[in-house]
Design a protein that fits this description.
Elements lengths: L2 H23 L4 H4 L9 H39 L9
Amino acid sequence: MGFRGKVLLVLVVYFAGFATAIYALAPADPKVTSQAVTEPLSFPQSFTKSDQFALSVGEKIRKAFSTGKELAHKASSTMNTGSAPAADKG
């Protein structure tokens, strides 16, 4: 691809990204997006939901951390004993 082809490709990609940004940031038509009006959550409700979410995420992070820790101990013991899994023993 020559220089002109590269410049053309860069311009097409640039203007496609610019058009996408304009489309994403343009205000939507209220007729199209009208939905039933919902009441915003009051402070205690939103705080409770936030706490529940934080507890859930924290629990999953702790679980992932403990799983990683167990796998690290297995890998360490395997490397220290020098025994390789059966598949690796040619």
